[in-house]
């Protein structure tokens, strides 16, 4: 099990950039997956970006070409660089991590608000 804390959210104008951070603690050595999800009011939570221990990445269609996910070598943190932000990117962004050893866990952070003004 790991604990996740997101940071870096805030208010930005359309076309601007933000960089979100997710700090993991606990059984970080067993993390094999980390990802970013977002949820806007009255909307379903959706995948933004994810990265596996192999460094393979996957992005939601709405953010491809604009957002980039990355992690540090120790898998203790994951980042989301968001460029060319649009008002429709406004949402609460959540960090997610999965572990496998010694037990399988699926952990979520508390979320950080991102608001993009037009």
Textual characterization of the structure:
There is one protein chain. This protein has strands at 2-7, 10-13, 18-26, 31-39, 46-52, 57-59, 67-71, 77-82, 91-99, 105-108, 112-117. It has 118 residues and is an all-beta fold. The strands form 2 sheets. Strands 2, 4, 5, 6, 9, 10 and 11 form a 7-stranded mixed sheet that branches. It has a 4-stranded antiparallel sheet with strand order 1-3-8-7, with no helix packed on it. The chain is elongated and about 45 Å long. 29% of the residues are buried.
The main sheet comes to: 7 strands, mixed
The outline comes out as: elongated
Span between N and C termini?
A: 39 Å
Assembly state of the chains shown: single chain
Return residue spans where pLDDT drops below 50 for at least 5 consecutive residues: none
How helical, in percent, are the residues?
Answer: under 10%
Which structural class is indicated by helix and strand composition?
mainly beta
Q: What is the typical, i.e. mean, pLDDT?
A: 95
Computed over alpha carbons, the radius of gyration is 14 Å
Q: Can you write the helix and strand succession as a string?
A: EEEEEEEEEEE
**Percentage of β-strand residues:** over 45%
The total of helices stands at: 0
Number of strands: 11
